[in-house]
Amino acid sequence: MSTPDENTKSRCPRCGELSAPGARFCEQCGFELRGQAVEGDEATGAPPTEPIPVVTVVDPDPDSSVTPPPPRLSARDHFTEKPSDWVAGVCDRGVRHARNEDAMALAAAGPGSANGTAALVVCDGVSSAPNSDVASLEAARVARDALVTFEPVGSLPVRGKIERRVAEWTQAMVAASRAAGAAVVRTGDEIARGASSSGRRSTPAIDPPACTFAAAVVDSGLVVAGWLGDSRVYWLPDDGVAEQLSVDDSWAQEMMAAGFSREQAEHSPQSHAITRWLGRSAPDHDAHCAAMLPEVPGWVLVCSDGLWNYCSEAEHVADLVHRLSGGTTDPSETAAALVLWANAAGGRDNITVALARVEPGRGEREGTDAEPADAEPAA
């Protein structure tokens, strides 16, 4: 039985997914591919087993046996960020992967969402592409910095305070995703040049690093989301209808658009194949965007598929967050609880959870056409 190298593809014996050349782990289920037969090898006579199902409703069985995670190797495997009391996140390698290719970068200013601003960015590195762990972290940090430092140029020709802010933050989100995409390309080029100068073998032209992008800005209660790929942004109110603000750029989403149910689409062997991403091979790096103005308290959640693999629909995610939070409004405690839950559910992928606690103030619920008293009229 032959083993995969940088120029051969391997088919996962657990779920049947065909992985890219040189992949160490299956992108679909996280199974280690080293030592497995390559595609076309007659030694693998048994048909592939069914893919691991997506759990969308129930919590994991606390009495079930859970494979312990591999030993932690570096701070990159598990890290937390808490830039303020109302914004925090946890990024974790999960149970089955050898490295953490997820990344996040958070920033916040102000005492709370009613009078503050926050940026939450999550990037999920594509496992089949080498060095995606490096690229995803750089992309997340570059995008966060772009959102934090963004300053609109001039006035936009739209009526109303809220409409203008939405337009400005949408512009900022697209600029941030473009900057993140450029960072992924630049990181891949720098790694390739380093490998070439040292004489090491590299395949950057075949498999350049790539990652997804999901981000949310909270500006005095206004929420603007941006995304490429299948990392997600949710709005989870304490009372009311939860929403998935992002729309996956994925094969599963294409199936749902064609009339398949969510369950059918997310059980598909190709469900996690993404149709847009950040990286050299991407057609563009312009994020899709959506905005909303919450009227009740709740959570903005930005996460990778390591979480929503086990709880996908917005209403189920909201129920999960409300149960695990235990009534606390501390985002760091809730994020940590969600990561532990996902690992207990199987941890078959890296897991990133970033949360912002939104507490709308009186000013955010006033009419959208009123200009602030000290503002200059729009041009």
Automatic annotation (TrEMBL):
Cite the CDD domains for this sequence: PP2Cc
Q: Which PROSITE patterns match?
A: PPM_2
**Domain PPM-type phosphatase: from-to ranges:** 102-358
Q: Where is this region: Disordered?
A: 359-379
Which Pfam family, an example, fits this chain? PP2C_2
Compositional bias (Acidic residues): 369-379
Cite the InterPro entries for this sequence. PPM-type-like_dom_sf (IPR036457), PPM-type_phosphatase-like_dom (IPR001932)
Task: List compositional bias (Basic and acidic residues) regions by residue number.
Answer: 359-368
Q: What is this protein called?
A: Protein phosphatase 2C domain-containing protein
